[in-house]
Amino acid sequence: MPGVAVKLYSVFFKLLLKHRLQNLISISAADGLSDSFGVSTRSDESVAAANPSFTDGVATKDIHIDPMTSLTVRIFLPESALSPPEPDSLRHKDHFHHQTRSDRRHSYGPNHNSPAPAERNESRRNSYGCNNENLEPYGGYAPSAKRNSRKLPVMLQFHGGGWVSGSSDSAANDFFCRRIAKVCDVIVLAVGYRLAPENRYPAAFEDGVKVLNWLGKQANLAECCKSLGNRRGNGVEVKKLNVQGQIVDAFGASMVEPWLAAHADPSRCVLLGVSCGGNIADYVARKAVEAGKLLEPVKVVAQVLMYPFFIGNNPTQSEIKLANSYFYDKPVSVLAWKLFLPEKEFDFDHPAANPLAHNRSGPPLKLMPPTLTVVAEHDWMRDRAIAYSEELRKVNVDSPVLEYKDAVHEFATLDMLLKTPQAQACAEDIAIWVKKYISIRGHEFSY
């Protein structure tokens, strides 16, 4: 069972969350609260400022990617990106030794092994954590055009918060994404999608797809910039390039995000959703399957659903037995769904709520990417998440489930639980599975 501190914190958490949700419901009913621009963070929530230097092994920056909405992303770039690119001769060597890990959770599916630690860049650093030649005037990291940069996979992360709270730059989400960027050795794009009730369904889902398309646009712009730069070097005049060889808009601002242009490999893209963010990730995965080659060079190779916010009209055993469980209990979650779904569409078998609903549109399950599902023993949503994973396995999709004993909803992402051994273990377990699909050496990891 969870400890006394967790139980007490859960009581206060649910009281505050219920009060917030009820206030939003009353305000929404009175004023409408409809705003197409929307909000992606709440003023009363603790946020972490972006830090574009590698003071703790990860540099971050915020980008507002849609001028018509509040949609933003926070980029988490691990310091390992500064390491020299791996020689081709080493890419296919299987020189990792793995040791089975089975002490921290029960796994539905094959066993897996643990990878070696990620490489760290040990070259000379200045006080900002960057090489001197890679320093912007404001003290942040800037990729050098003089050397070939290491390419890392990209992970799109969708935060939790019951549709109405949370953000890409919250203190808890910042800590979690830094941890994931380091253990998985990936560039994390934390998506600051629009919150409800200002923007109800399908706003958050559309924002997720928009970020995936933006990633593809960035990759194409970076390749175009590289091609045009080569042409200019051959004496060809290119009017859209500035003195640094970057594609610029009408105001002279660069259209290419330099960190992604230098270090991102969008052909190895992973989706990770936390709580209600898991619902968004699954939707984005379906849209990626539907788009197919239209998304190139972006390719979604896997997704991770961490205690997804699934629900349905026919209650499961866990929904009955654990309805009053810790933190996000069922009554509070129902209020969140009332704020998220349009009034005329409110239905627990809505495609956004129930992944196995009969009216769910999209590609067949057999076309879905490999899906890792993380569930907690004391979470009323666990059974539906497990059922979805089982349906994926029936059509031969790699979809293991990791169930953590004595764990609660958001045990690996909630602020007071982030530094627990179980939260760290969960991040490491995710890294083990994800690396099976993002390793440039091929499928050398087993799970």
TrEMBL record:
Cited Pfam families: Abhydrolase_3
Keyword Hydrolase belongs to the record: yes
Domain Alpha/beta hydrolase fold-3 residue range list: 155-412
Domain of life from the UniProt record: Eukaryota
Start and end residues of each stretch annotated as Disordered: 82-132
GO MF, one example: hydrolase activity
Record's keyword terms, sorted: Hydrolase
Tagged with keyword Hydrolase: yes
UniProt similarity note: Belongs to the 'GDXG' lipolytic enzyme family.
Protein name (database record): Alpha/Beta hydrolase fold
Native species: Arabidopsis thaliana x Arabidopsis arenosa
